[in-house]
C-alpha cells in the first residue's frame, strides 16, 4: 500500500459512520455599489500603482500623456494607432481589461480584444491599463460572474513585487515594475 492509499484509508476509517452534513455556502454575491469607482481607485493606489480618474472625453489625451515617448505594445483590439511589436525592445504595454474589483483593487485580464497576450502584459517593465467605470464591480463574486473560466485569466493587484528573506521589497520580478491605471468615467 502506498503512503497516499494508507492516508486515505485512515481518513476513511476515521469518518466511517459519521453523518453527512451539508455545508452552507451562502456567500454574499453582491455588495452595495456605492462609490465603487472611488474605492477601486483608492485600493489600486494602495498597491503603489499610479491612478488617474478621467472623464471618457479626456481619455485619449490622458493615454498620450501617460505614455509620452515610450515604445509600447498596443494589442489587437485596443483603439489606438501605432505600437511596438518586439517584446525585447518595448518599454511597456497599454491594455484594456475584463473587469476591475473595487474591494481588492484587482484588475483582471482575460486576454480578449485590447488586452494582449500574457507575455505582452508580463514581460514589459511598464503597463498602462485602461479601466472603464462600467467594468468595475464591488467584489470578487461579481467579477467571477463576468468572467469566462475557459479563458486565460491574469489577476493584477499592483505592480509586480515580492520580498526577499529579509522582507526587502523587490519590484518587477514577475511582471511590470510600474503599473499605471486610467479609470474612464
TrEMBL record:
<protein>
    <submittedName>
        <fullName>L-lactate dehydrogenase complex protein LldG</fullName>
    </submittedName>
</protein>
<dbReference type="Pfam" id="PF02589">
    <property type="entry name" value="LUD_dom"/>
</dbReference>
<dbReference type="InterPro" id="IPR037171">
    <property type="entry name" value="NagB/RpiA_transferase-like"/>
</dbReference>
<dbReference type="InterPro" id="IPR024185">
    <property type="entry name" value="FTHF_cligase-like_sf"/>
</dbReference>
<feature type="domain" description="LUD">
    <location>
        <begin position="87"/>
        <end position="183"/>
    </location>
</feature>
<dbReference type="InterPro" id="IPR003741">
    <property type="entry name" value="LUD_dom"/>
</dbReference>
